[in-house]
Design a protein that fits this description.
single chain, 156 residues, alpha+beta, three-stranded mixed β-sheet, elongated
């Protein structure tokens, strides 16, 4: 469904769903920016050694949720929650009724790269290589016999 205005000289009309996407993107970016500023204010309130372990925050209506790296840092953050809520409201950043601390789950470890094995030749092909060794000179014959032994071991 398109907007109704299509008179010449006006900007190109946009689809309504395009406008919706742009508006929702703006809202999302504004919320991310608000959380970033709030996290900076929280880190200023906390001691520097603890502030670096406060990974993120989410403000939803009158509830503040802080995210810590581990259970031990979460316990220390809980100790500071009353001070954080009080100072945020005193400096006019935000008013919260409750605050919580959650632990961020550990990030999954990257899996090692797949070590793809080259498919081994069939037993018939190994036999053919071994048979061709009989017709070759000694150096090639020796190399082909070592190759067939290695292929037989690997195929077991």
């Amino acid at each position: 469904m398109e907007t109704a205005d299509r008179s010449p000289g006006r900007n190109r009309s946009r689809r309504i769903d395009e406008l919706f996407r742009l508006e929702s993107l703006r809202n999302c970016l504004a919320r991310i920016d608000r959380h970033r500023h709030l996290l900076a204010a929280i880190r200023e309130i906390l001691p520097a050694s603890l502030g670096v372990h406060c990974s993120d925050c989410v403000a939803d209506e009158h509830i503040l949720i802080l995210y810590a790296e581990s259970a031990s840092w979460a316990a220390q953050l809980r100790f500071y929650l009353p001070k954080i809520v009080c100072e945020l409201s005193a400096c006019g950043v935000a008013q919260f009724r409750r605050a919580k601390v959650r632990i961020l789950p550990p990030l999954p470890k990257p899996s090692p790269p797949d070590r793809r094995r080259t498919p081994l030749p069939s037993a018939t092909v190994i036999d053919m290589v071994e048979d061709s060794a009989a017709a070759a000179d000694e150096e090639i014959k020796s190399a082909l016999l070592r190759l067939t032994r290695t292929l037989r071991k690997a195929s077991l």
